[in-house]
Specification:
Layout (H helix, E strand, L loop, with lengths): L11 E11 L2 E9 L3 E9 L2 E9 L7 E9 L4 E10 L2 E2 L3 E2 L4 E2 L2 H4 L4 E8 L20
Length: about 140
């Protein structure tokens, strides 16, 4: 359950990322609180936000939220999406915006992939859990 069934506070987020493996070059998709509970996409390059997207989602409530970053290596692009399961019913997958470009340097020799959780300001500490992270090559 996202945020362990609690309503998140501003500036709390949890999700996954891809990138170069540093704090200045990555793309992430998270469940978050930022003026409302959302699924948020951010791409940061050289320490500056270059792209973002968001979709509203009510929390607490979902049994789970599956987050996806689909990467098309040949087109050097990523498309964020998510799927909510509520009351045991798995809903359809929703995109958080369009395909977005990725710097070629992120793809060579390969992407760093991982989980991310942040909190700052009034948000404070919160429980963040993941049940799995899966990477699958699509050909």
């Amino acid at each position: 359950r996202p945020f362990d069934g609690l309503t998140p506070r501003n500036y709390q987020s949890m999700g996954l990322f891809i990138g170069r493996g540093d704090q200045n070059n990555y793309a992430k998709i998270t469940t978050a609180m930022s003026g409302g509970t959302i699924v948020q996409f951010i791409k940061e390059q050289r320490g500056r936000i270059r792209s973002r997207g968001r979709r509203n989602i009510s929390m607490p409530g979902p049994d789970q939220v599956d987050l996806y970053l689909t990467v098309n290596v040949s087109k050097r692009s990523v498309r964020p999406s998510y799927r909510v399961t509520r009351d045991g019913v798995r809903r359809s997958r929703k995109h958080v915006g369009k395909w977005r470009s990725l710097p070629g340097a992120w793809l060579e020799p390969g992407l760093a992939i991982g989980i991310i959780s942040t909190s700052r300001g009034p948000g404070g500490r919160f429980p963040a859990t993941w049940d799995l992270i899966k990477v699958r090559a699509i050909r």
